[in-house]
Design brief:
Layout: H1 51-66, H2 90-104, E1 117-122, E2 126-134, E3 147-157, E4 160-176, E5 179-197, E6 200-214, E7 219-233, E8 236-250, E9 255-266, E10 271-284, E11 291-297, E12 303-308, E13 313-319, E14 328-333
Antiparallel strand pairs: 1-2, 2-3, 3-4, 4-5, 5-6, 6-7, 7-8, 8-9, 9-10, 10-11, 11-12, 12-13, 13-14
Length: about 325
């Protein structure tokens, strides 16, 4: 889902998905362990004065995980419709990396015993990347029970640079991930794992669960959930707790839908808000959402509800005293957020 100002709209974080959408959250619970230092901060009081900032922070969170993917050649597919400023889709990048890890194994490594760990260096345009792939059933493809670890040091793939460590476990695969119908889920542990492209950088610390499925190879559903993950994106240092973001996308038409639920703590905001998707944000292609509604709640039930008017504008309905009644309605452009 595209957005504006460096926001809205997955290496697999999040299939983190992976940087996210806006404030709300559909489908699924929050899995994945809680990393150290990932507790939510105290809620902020929402007012007309900070309503745009609250909405912007919410969108920044989603952007880092499901932003438009500029693409690491051979690893990340071109994204069909997501944000334009933050072009990194950490979740999709991670998903594609996980899917293709077995294909990265050198051709002369066949014949290993089952469950043998195969370690090799991946060719980067510059920098280095080391990969360990534990092919649990020795079928030379991604399947249930496999584990993967990646360590990158300024590894550049056609303008997308990766750093840090990524560990993948608890892999569950049904079907062939390259020949739908299929479904895939895995647990992610990121240690200062970053993806940089087009002047933007997304940094992940912590753990979560990523999933992706498709019945026809055209319509895809991906989700990222976590009890505690740190994300640095769009100039914000964010902590996502009890968080879930789900995205569906039609790769033929570019139609997308994004839902988000959870608590977002922001260094810039100086506290946290809890976000809920009332109606999934939907749109087409590289445009911002033209429909949908998300609500961000702070201290004392104060809140701002973001309502997509069209792909250019939004309405922010602010409840400044937490009584459930709109005190002020503000108009804004997606580009303002």
């Amino acid at each position: 889902m595209p957005a504006s100002k460096n926001v809205i709209k997955t290496i697999a974080l999040l299939s983190a998905t992976s940087i996210l959408g806006a404030c709300g959250g559909g489908g699924g619970g929050s899995d994945g362990g809680t990393g150290a230092g990932t507790a939510a901060s105290s809620p902020v009081t929402v007012s007309a004065a900070n309503a745009e900032q609250v909405a912007s922070v919410t969108l920044d969170a989603s952007t880092g995980l499901t932003g438009n993917t500029a693409g690491a050649i051979g690893l990340v597919p071109a994204a069909v419709g997501h944000v334009q400023s933050v072009k990194i889709n950490a979740t999709e990048t991670i998903i594609e990396l996980v899917k293709k890890a077995p294909d990265l194994v050198p051709s002369d490594s066949s014949g290993v015993t089952p469950a043998a760990v195969q370690s090799f260096a991946q060719n980067c345009n510059s920098g280095t990347m080391s990969v360990s792939f534990n092919d649990a059933d020795n079928n030379q493809t991604l399947s249930t029970g496999d584990t993967i670890s990646v360590t990158a040091n300024n590894c550049d793939f056609g303008g997308t640079t990766m750093n840090g460590r990524l560990s993948i476990s608890d892999v569950v695969v049904s079907g062939d991930e390259f020949t739908p119908p299929y479904s895939m889920q895995f647990t992610l542990q990121a240690t200062s794992f970053s993806v940089s492209s087009g002047g933007e950088t997304v940094v992940l610390n912590g753990s979560g669960t990523i999933s992706e499925s498709s019945n026809d190879g055209i319509n895809f559903t991906s989700a990222f959930s976590s009890n505690g993950v740190q994300v640095a994106a769009g100039g914000e240092s964010l902590i996502l707790t009890n968080y879930n973001i789900q995205e569906t996308e039609n790769q033929a038409t570019g139609e997308y839908s994004i839902s988000i639920n959870g608590t977002i703590s922001s260094s810039g905001l100086g506290g946290s808000v809890t976000v809920t998707t009332d109606v999934a944000l939907t749109g087409v292609g590289a445009s911002d959402a033209d429909a949908g509604q998300i609500t961000c709640v702070g201290e004392g039930n104060t809140s701002v509800t973001l309502i997509a008017v069209d792909s250019l504008s939004v309405r922010l309905e602010v409840d400044e005293n937490g009584d459930g009644i709109v005190d002020q309605a503000l108009s804004a452009a997606w580009s303002d957020l």
